[in-house]
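Re: the 209-residue chain
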Amino acid sequence: MTSNKTALVLGATGLVGRALVRCLLLDPRYVQITCLVRRPIPFAFFSDPLKKLTPVVIDFENLQDYQGYFNVDHVYCCLGTTLKKAGNKEAFRKVDFEYVHVCAQLARAQRCQGFVWISSVGADANSNNFYLRVKGQLENAIMSMPQLQHAAAVRPSLLLGKREEKRPLEQFGQYVAPVVGMFMPGPLAKFKPVSAVEVANQMVRLQHF
Protein backbone atom coordinates (compact mmCIF):
# COMPACT_ATOMS: atom_id res chain seq x y z
CA MET A 1 0.00 0.00 0.00
CA THR A 2 1.31 3.43 -0.94
CA SER A 3 0.29 6.87 0.14
CA ASN A 4 1.56 10.43 0.09
CA LYS A 5 2.06 11.12 3.78
CA THR A 6 4.50 13.68 5.09
CA ALA A 7 6.16 13.63 8.49
CA LEU A 8 8.10 15.91 10.78
CA VAL A 9 10.58 14.44 13.27
CA LEU A 10 12.11 16.26 16.22
CA GLY A 11 14.97 14.60 18.06
CA ALA A 12 16.07 12.67 14.98
CA THR A 13 19.64 12.15 16.19
CA GLY A 14 18.72 10.52 19.50
CA LEU A 15 18.44 6.79 20.10
CA VAL A 16 14.73 6.46 19.27
CA GLY A 17 14.81 9.31 16.78
CA ARG A 18 17.43 7.58 14.63
CA ALA A 19 15.46 4.34 14.64
CA LEU A 20 12.27 6.23 13.80
CA VAL A 21 13.73 8.10 10.84
CA ARG A 22 15.15 4.87 9.43
CA CYS A 23 11.72 3.29 9.81
CA LEU A 24 9.99 6.19 8.05
CA LEU A 25 12.49 6.20 5.19
CA LEU A 26 11.60 2.57 4.51
CA ASP A 27 7.86 3.15 4.80
CA PRO A 28 6.27 3.54 1.33
CA ARG A 29 3.42 5.57 2.80
CA TYR A 30 5.77 8.49 3.43
CA VAL A 31 7.08 10.60 0.58
CA GLN A 32 8.71 13.35 2.63
CA ILE A 33 10.34 13.41 6.08
CA THR A 34 11.58 16.67 7.54
CA CYS A 35 13.86 16.64 10.58
CA LEU A 36 14.36 19.70 12.76
CA VAL A 37 17.82 19.44 14.33
CA ARG A 38 20.24 21.51 16.40
CA ARG A 39 23.21 20.91 14.12
CA PRO A 40 23.84 19.50 10.63
CA ILE A 41 23.38 15.74 10.24
CA PRO A 42 26.36 13.91 8.69
CA PHE A 43 25.60 12.74 5.17
CA ALA A 44 26.10 9.08 6.09
CA PHE A 45 23.91 9.24 9.19
CA PHE A 46 20.88 7.90 7.29
CA SER A 47 20.50 5.85 4.13
CA ASP A 48 18.13 7.83 1.93
CA PRO A 49 18.23 6.49 -1.66
CA LEU A 50 14.77 7.90 -2.45
CA LYS A 51 15.73 11.40 -1.26
CA LYS A 52 12.84 11.67 1.18
CA LEU A 53 14.80 13.32 3.99
CA THR A 54 15.17 17.06 4.55
CA PRO A 55 17.15 18.05 7.66
CA VAL A 56 16.71 21.64 8.83
CA VAL A 57 18.93 23.23 11.47
CA ILE A 58 16.89 25.41 13.85
CA ASP A 59 17.08 27.23 17.17
CA PHE A 60 14.91 25.27 19.59
CA GLU A 61 14.68 28.30 21.83
CA ASN A 62 12.49 29.84 19.13
CA LEU A 63 10.40 26.92 17.93
CA GLN A 64 7.48 29.21 17.12
CA ASP A 65 9.53 30.72 14.30
CA TYR A 66 9.43 27.38 12.48
CA GLN A 67 5.68 26.79 12.57
CA GLY A 68 5.50 26.26 8.82
CA TYR A 69 7.47 23.02 9.09
CA PHE A 70 4.64 21.58 11.16
CA ASN A 71 2.35 21.68 8.14
CA VAL A 72 2.64 17.90 7.66
CA ASP A 73 0.42 14.87 8.19
CA HIS A 74 2.22 13.43 11.20
CA VAL A 75 4.54 14.90 13.82
CA TYR A 76 6.87 12.61 15.74
CA CYS A 77 8.54 14.17 18.78
CA CYS A 78 11.53 12.28 20.18
CA LEU A 79 12.98 15.19 22.15
CA GLY A 80 14.36 14.36 25.58
CA THR A 81 17.39 14.61 27.80
CA THR A 82 18.57 13.50 31.24
CA LEU A 83 19.05 15.44 34.45
CA LYS A 84 22.78 14.77 34.26
CA LYS A 85 23.11 16.05 30.71
CA ALA A 86 20.79 19.02 31.27
CA GLY A 87 22.70 20.07 34.37
CA ASN A 88 19.71 21.06 36.50
CA LYS A 89 15.97 20.54 36.85
CA GLU A 90 15.05 23.77 35.10
CA ALA A 91 17.08 22.90 32.01
CA PHE A 92 15.68 19.37 32.00
CA ARG A 93 12.11 20.64 32.17
CA LYS A 94 12.74 23.07 29.31
CA VAL A 95 13.60 20.19 26.97
CA ASP A 96 11.30 17.44 28.21
CA PHE A 97 8.26 19.60 28.91
CA GLU A 98 8.42 23.03 27.30
CA TYR A 99 9.89 22.08 23.92
CA VAL A 100 7.55 19.11 23.49
CA HIS A 101 4.53 21.12 24.63
CA VAL A 102 5.30 23.87 22.11
CA CYS A 103 5.66 21.23 19.39
CA ALA A 104 2.19 19.93 20.25
CA GLN A 105 0.80 23.45 20.06
CA LEU A 106 2.38 24.03 16.65
CA ALA A 107 1.06 20.68 15.39
CA ARG A 108 -2.41 21.71 16.53
CA ALA A 109 -2.12 25.12 14.85
CA GLN A 110 -1.22 23.42 11.56
CA ARG A 111 -4.03 20.86 11.97
CA CYS A 112 -1.75 17.83 11.76
CA GLN A 113 -3.46 14.47 11.51
CA GLY A 114 -1.42 12.99 14.35
CA PHE A 115 1.07 13.90 17.09
CA VAL A 116 3.10 11.23 18.88
CA TRP A 117 5.75 11.81 21.52
CA ILE A 118 7.90 9.82 23.95
CA SER A 119 6.87 9.76 27.59
CA SER A 120 7.94 7.14 30.15
CA VAL A 121 6.56 4.12 31.92
CA GLY A 122 5.39 5.30 35.34
CA ALA A 123 4.72 8.88 34.18
CA ASP A 124 2.57 10.52 36.84
CA ALA A 125 1.94 14.22 37.44
CA ASN A 126 1.75 13.49 41.18
CA SER A 127 4.89 11.36 41.41
CA ASN A 128 7.55 12.13 44.01
CA ASN A 129 10.12 11.39 41.31
CA PHE A 130 10.93 14.59 39.41
CA TYR A 131 11.52 12.85 36.08
CA LEU A 132 8.24 10.92 36.20
CA ARG A 133 6.37 13.98 37.47
CA VAL A 134 7.49 16.10 34.51
CA LYS A 135 6.56 13.32 32.10
CA GLY A 136 3.13 13.01 33.73
CA GLN A 137 2.53 16.74 33.71
CA LEU A 138 3.37 16.83 30.01
CA GLU A 139 0.95 14.01 29.26
CA ASN A 140 -1.82 15.87 31.08
CA ALA A 141 -1.01 19.14 29.30
CA ILE A 142 -0.99 17.64 25.80
CA MET A 143 -3.94 15.30 26.19
CA SER A 144 -6.10 18.18 27.47
CA MET A 145 -5.32 20.42 24.49
CA PRO A 146 -8.45 21.04 22.40
CA GLN A 147 -8.39 20.35 18.67
CA LEU A 148 -5.14 18.36 18.72
CA GLN A 149 -5.99 15.36 16.59
CA HIS A 150 -4.86 11.86 17.51
CA ALA A 151 -2.33 12.79 20.19
CA ALA A 152 -0.64 9.75 21.70
CA ALA A 153 2.32 9.05 23.96
CA VAL A 154 4.54 5.98 24.00
CA ARG A 155 5.69 4.93 27.47
CA PRO A 156 8.92 2.97 27.18
CA SER A 157 10.87 1.66 30.15
CA LEU A 158 14.65 1.30 29.98
CA LEU A 159 15.73 1.92 26.38
CA LEU A 160 18.11 -0.48 24.70
CA GLY A 161 20.34 0.44 21.79
CA LYS A 162 23.69 1.98 20.96
CA ARG A 163 23.96 5.65 21.91
CA GLU A 164 26.59 8.18 20.94
CA GLU A 165 26.67 9.32 24.57
CA LYS A 166 27.31 7.06 27.55
CA ARG A 167 24.43 6.28 29.89
CA PRO A 168 25.66 3.75 32.47
CA LEU A 169 22.19 2.59 33.54
CA GLU A 170 21.16 1.83 29.96
CA GLN A 171 24.50 0.13 29.26
CA PHE A 172 23.92 -2.10 32.25
CA GLY A 173 20.42 -2.80 30.95
CA GLN A 174 21.84 -4.14 27.70
CA TYR A 175 23.45 -6.98 29.62
CA VAL A 176 20.65 -7.84 32.03
CA ALA A 177 17.64 -7.30 29.73
CA PRO A 178 17.37 -10.93 28.50
CA VAL A 179 17.34 -12.22 32.07
CA VAL A 180 15.12 -9.49 33.50
CA GLY A 181 12.48 -10.04 30.83
CA MET A 182 12.04 -13.66 31.88
CA PHE A 183 10.91 -12.60 35.34
CA MET A 184 8.50 -9.85 34.36
CA PRO A 185 5.27 -11.47 33.12
CA GLY A 186 1.75 -10.05 33.07
CA PRO A 187 1.36 -6.58 34.61
CA LEU A 188 5.12 -6.28 35.05
CA ALA A 189 5.76 -6.67 31.33
CA LYS A 190 5.51 -2.89 30.76
CA PHE A 191 8.67 -2.45 32.86
CA LYS A 192 10.78 -4.71 30.64
CA PRO A 193 13.70 -3.01 28.88
CA VAL A 194 12.70 -2.21 25.30
CA SER A 195 14.70 -1.59 22.15
CA ALA A 196 14.65 1.77 20.42
CA VAL A 197 13.47 0.06 17.24
CA GLU A 198 10.41 -1.34 19.05
CA VAL A 199 9.56 2.10 20.39
CA ALA A 200 9.95 3.64 16.94
CA ASN A 201 7.68 1.02 15.40
CA GLN A 202 5.08 1.65 18.09
CA MET A 203 5.15 5.37 17.36
CA VAL A 204 4.45 4.73 13.69
CA ARG A 205 1.60 2.33 14.53
CA LEU A 206 -0.01 4.98 16.69
CA GLN A 207 -0.40 7.33 13.78
CA HIS A 208 -3.64 7.23 11.82
CA PHE A 209 -3.53 6.59 8.11
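Residues 93 and 134 are 7 Å apart (CA to CA).
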